[in-house]
Batch of 2 targets.
Target 1
Amino acid sequence: MQKQQERTLLLRFGALPVLFLLLASQGAHADAGAAADAAADVAAAESNLNDKVEVFTVATEPTDGYARYIRSARIYDVKVTTLGLGEHWKGGDMQHPGGGFKVNLLRKAVAPLKDEQDTIVLFTDSYDVIITAKLEEIVELFKESKAKLLFSAEKFCWPDSSLTDAYPEVEGNASRFLNSGAFIGYAPQVNALLEEAIDDMDDDQLYYTKVFLDEARRAKLGMKLDTQSRLFQNLHGAKNDVKLKVDIESNQGILQNVNFLTTPAIVHGNGLSKVDLNAYGNYLAKTFNGICTVCQEYLLELDEQHLPVISLSVIVPMAVPFFDQFLEGIEKINYPKQNLHLLIYSNVELHDADIKSFVNKHGEKYASAKYTLSTDNLDERQGRQLAFDQAKLRKSDYIFFIDGDAHIDDGEVLRELLKLNKQFVAPLFAKYHELWSNFWGALSEGGFYARSHDYVDIVKRDLIGIFNVPHVTSIYLVRSSVFDVLSFQHSEYDADMAMCESLRKAGVFMFISNQRYFGHLVNADNFDTKVARPDFYTLFSNRYDWTEKYIHPNYSEQLNASTVIEQPCPDVYWMAIVTDAFCDDLVAIMENHGTWSDGSNNDNRLEGGYEAVPTRDIHMKQVGLEVLYLKFLELFVRPLQERVFTGYYHNPPRALMNFMVRYRPDEQPSLRPHHDASTYTINIAMNQVDTDYEGGGCRFLRYNCSVTETKKGWMLMHPGRLTHYHEGLLVTKGTRYIMISFIDP
Ligand SMILES: *[C@@H]1O[C@H](CO)[C@@H](O)[C@H](O)[C@H]1NC(C)=O
Ligand SMILES: *[C@@H]1O[C@H](CO)[C@@H](O)[C@H](O)[C@H]1NC(C)=O
Ligand SMILES: *[C@@H]1O[C@H](CO)[C@@H](O)[C@H](O)[C@H]1NC(C)=O
Ligand SMILES: *[C@@H]1O[C@H](CO)[C@@H](O)[C@H](O)[C@H]1NC(C)=O
């Protein structure tokens, strides 16, 4: 228990332990002091704001980043004027220099304030900025700097690194270079700063840099850089400078600069640090206070009369186990089918037939239903593109992608995602009780997977909320507003990575929600499709789905000591153990193998080569299922044995003989009385008397007691030696299959 708590509290960011108290507020920690001090500072700053402050930002489009910025401003009561909203952006793209447009917009906006000596102007970018403090605190930090004009500082000299040496030196881990993403100053100084002309396409950072590096102008303007991140924190190249913490008092996330023990009020994901900012942004600006508060904001109420039209795009690019259950999951989605356009893309022959019959059976209920099969020879990228093109063609409001390994367990998943009101949102899906999931918390340098400090807690749902993450796969809902920027095309990346990159590039946030348990991923690794009934072979890789599909739904009840277990003959117990699917698949596997033994006493499968009481049978070894079946005995049979034969404890059970017997009138219809070479024997009926065959059953001679009304999927368990001398009764019609194990010989 203690361990569990420590793990919850001590999340990791990079190599640094991070104190995280989002779940439990007890249990103080050495690091807590600084966070508490910071909280006290915030409280102290709640004095009256006497200064006139004008806050400006630039955003031509209301991107997700802009929405995050505006939310953070609202949270801290910062009134912002947005410049350029709705205008065509003329400042180049994010990857290249540009931004003169911002300068020109700001110049126009601050011109009227030119003579207001006491007015303070704060400018910040918006798409990649988060405000984390009230204006009072921001102003106080500005005044403490004794500057008239204070710029944020960063670690890189950009865009012209040849200017490096022109900058004043700084000590230790301070930031030496000007960054144009945020600055604050008195109105006259800001006006003076902006007096020279700049082309919309020219670089704003270079423009301001030149002013700063001109010592005379710098002095005249009282211009300084916030090199110790007292007010501004630029994140690019500063990974080791900052640490996400949790404020003890408020249970809220804060970002601390660990070099200078500051809590910067304005955090800027400059340059390549957008993904880092997104990760911090999940916890900054009061998104959590023990519970996810941001989860309750901006929710969409669904109007049942006017529900969005959604393209349901099922993507099956590889063979997956338990595809029948996957399709059941699709049917489970609680949403009017007339609002759903179904398209199934498959590139797997194994699944073609199931897809066809699914669409034939259910297709009519949907607004439209189409499929492409392996015979159409589309690769995954083309398949996704096709689904996407269809969604656009149908003028869908959303496209909901679901891959063949994503099993929906909660039919409310689509409605719940819609309510979250995001451009892109996914439910958390993970392999059952594993850490493999459908999102990445961070990216490596090459754009591949990297673990984030909160990854494990999100996957295990120790931390519940919605999270902005850099990569999502398997199942996600995309609003039509981003159809224009979403792309599956890339020269190096696969379709998933290409899509995520296209969204990151466009500044579209990918959210993942684990607010409910929505479903899970099956494990398709090493899925052998060459065998008959391949699902049956996946107990080790997919224990959860295997159990769901193959273990009788009433199995567990029988482990409860208060459940009475039937005893049709003395010490012969009768229990539900497997499903019809188990029986049907195993019989099919055996019949597909086809080489039943000849029923003679010579049996070269056995060590001595001799069988005293031969049957027509196939051993599990012969179909590659011996190891799996021993696991089945251990997991499912042994607990029942321990219930009915109290005190006998052998774990794991041993069995050298696990085999299916086939009785039929024209082959071997019965078996003479015998003892089994076992401590106990199990005998599972693989098909149904009176439906599949007539006659048959098992008779225990000592008690003159027969079990003839056997039930498919039910198991007889009885002692093997001495008392339970038994015979196989005559099958008069059809074929009877039973699955036998001699346990602990
Ligand atoms: C700079 O920061 C790193 C990592 O936080 C630290 O190990 C190092 O001692 C710091 N250097 C100085 C000069 O403060
Ligand atoms: C499980 O048990 C319940 C109650 O005993 C019964 O109604 C139900 O039919 C059983 N399920 C199956 C699949 O046999
Ligand atoms: C066992 O069954 C009893 C009676 O049905 C029930 O009250 C009890 O909760 C069950 N125990 C477990 C562990 O399921
Ligand atoms: C065995 O049971 C059958 C019917 O259950 C009965 O007809 C028969 O007489 C019994 N045999 C002996 C030896 O008791």
Target 2
Amino acid sequence: MEVRSHFLLSITFLLVLQYTSLYMAKLTQGTVGAAQINITTDQSALLALKSHITSDPHNILVNWSTTTSICNWVGITCGARHLRVASLNLSYMGFTGTIPPHLGNLSFLVALSFNNNSFHGTLPYELSYLRRLKLVSFGYNNFVGSIPSWFGAFPKLQGFYLYGNQFSGSIPTTIFNLSTLRVIVLSGNQLSEIPQEIGFLHQLEKLYIEFNALKGHVPMVVFNMSSLTTLTLYGNSLSGGLPDNICQHHPSLEKVNLGDNQFGGPLPSKLWQCTKLLNLSLVENNFSGSIPKTIGNLTMLKGIYLNSNNFNEIPKEIGFLHQLEELYVPLNALKGPVPVAVFNMSSLTTLALYTNKLSGSLPDNICQHLPNLQMFQWKHSKKYWELNPVNHDWA
Ligand SMILES: *[C@@H]1O[C@H](CO)[C@@H](O)[C@H](O)[C@H]1NC(C)=O
Ligand SMILES: *[C@@H]1O[C@H](CO)[C@@H](O)[C@H](O)[C@H]1NC(C)=O
Ligand SMILES: *[C@@H]1O[C@H](CO)[C@@H](O)[C@H](O)[C@H]1NC(C)=O
Ligand SMILES: *[C@@H]1O[C@H](CO)[C@@H](O)[C@H](O)[C@H]1NC(C)=O
Ligand SMILES: *[C@@H]1O[C@H](CO)[C@@H](O)[C@H](O)[C@H]1NC(C)=O
Ligand SMILES: *[C@@H]1O[C@H](CO)[C@@H](O)[C@H](O)[C@H]1NC(C)=O
Ligand SMILES: *[C@@H]1O[C@H](CO)[C@@H](O)[C@H](O)[C@H]1NC(C)=O
Ligand SMILES: *[C@@H]1O[C@H](CO)[C@@H](O)[C@H](O)[C@H]1NC(C)=O
Ligand SMILES: *[C@@H]1O[C@H](CO)[C@@H](O)[C@H](O)[C@H]1NC(C)=O
Ligand SMILES: *[C@@H]1O[C@H](CO)[C@@H](O)[C@H](O)[C@H]1NC(C)=O
Ligand SMILES: *[C@@H]1O[C@H](CO)[C@@H](O)[C@H](O)[C@H]1NC(C)=O
């Protein structure tokens, strides 16, 4: 009895094993329903794409010849293990055309890059079948309309690049379910809204949405995404103030560019909490008041760009920024003398202070402690002195 049940158990085990390996074999062939999907399918998908490319000024597609394996075609990389198309990179090839639904059959595709071509039309729904995709890059093409919500179907997506098209409307909330997303680049479109749900992206490091049609306030959750290192929203019509605790949940922030919007009010006094900040650009806004003294604690800063605001004071604490290379505060309401500490920042290469209400005279030995200064813009935009970097004489 015991022997028999052992025997049955092992048979069952073997059957399970066999079934599993069969299943695995089918899986690596990419079986969908009844049709077998293999490299031949990949070839037909690519040939369909070729037939949808209407202009190929550099004659690149001559290379896509059926006499050789598709794995040798320009722009194609096959996976070493399964010999299916893993990467399709047609960036910078000068193509004009549309994307056929057949690309949805490239079931082993991990990276899809079509940057800098003239693809147009709609992105077919069938692309959503590409469950292995980690990179989607359609930058600088001519796609229009809404960003399809099926972009939320890529559970492994890490990089999402749709810059330089004419996408409009909101960013579909479906993509905010993709917890693996690290980089979103939607710059240069006509998007009008950042949904609250963006706060679900707990691994997002870089968010670029400059030059779009975003309006109103930035959703507070954006200032709460602790994984962010880069936040670039310039060239929109955003407005409002920055919350005083903007940095409390942003321990990793390195680069912030909120230029050319309609933000106003004082700078957050707790700016010092963004301890990793390297580059701060808030040009062409309506910020006012003093630049907070605590900026002197952000000792990693290399660039500060505050052109065209209403700041009235540079604190002397700015002198603590021993890595600062570029300090731009022109076209503001700065009053009084420039703190002497500013003329003591040996890392500075550029100092722009023109069109303010500054008074007092410049120290005689201005260059003594500014050995790296290459450009000094003092009074008006056209009236600046360029320093000769060799002997520090006025050029
Ligand atoms: C791919 O599958 C088809 C059936 O769908 C089969 O005829 C063909 O021989 C297969 N090709 C390869 C390279 O396995
Ligand atoms: C296509 O280009 C690749 C790489 O540049 C080359 O290895 C291959 O031989 C070319 N194939 C044809 C048919 O020209
Ligand atoms: C795609 O090709 C371009 C041009 O050859 C290259 O610069 C880029 O790094 C490639 N992208 C990927 C994801 O391989
Ligand atoms: C691939 O995709 C196209 C269009 O989505 C479809 O018509 C075709 O049957 C698919 N399968 C194969 C094996 O080519
Ligand atoms: C990509 O396209 C943009 C916009 O047309 C252009 O400014 C840029 O120079 C192009 N880059 C390359 C490498 O072709
Ligand atoms: C996100 O995923 C959750 C759980 O999987 C689902 O309930 C929800 O509808 C999804 N949201 C969107 C916007 O796709
Ligand atoms: C920001 O995060 C904190 C802590 O995780 C949470 O208490 C707060 O409600 C969040 N605020 C917003 C606007 O999401
Ligand atoms: C700029 O801010 C000041 C207060 O600092 C306010 O009086 C003025 O209306 C604002 N200007 C614009 C264009 O928002
Ligand atoms: C900021 O810098 C000042 C002067 O160096 C220092 O006294 C203060 O403790 C610093 N604050 C923080 C929070 O690091
Ligand atoms: C800061 O970022 C701006 C915009 O990307 C760039 O032009 C500038 O060179 C950066 N500054 C430094 C010091 O890296
Ligand atoms: C200038 O810097 C030097 C060394 O960093 C320091 O000893 C000196 O006190 C500073 N002078 C002023 C006016 O900040």
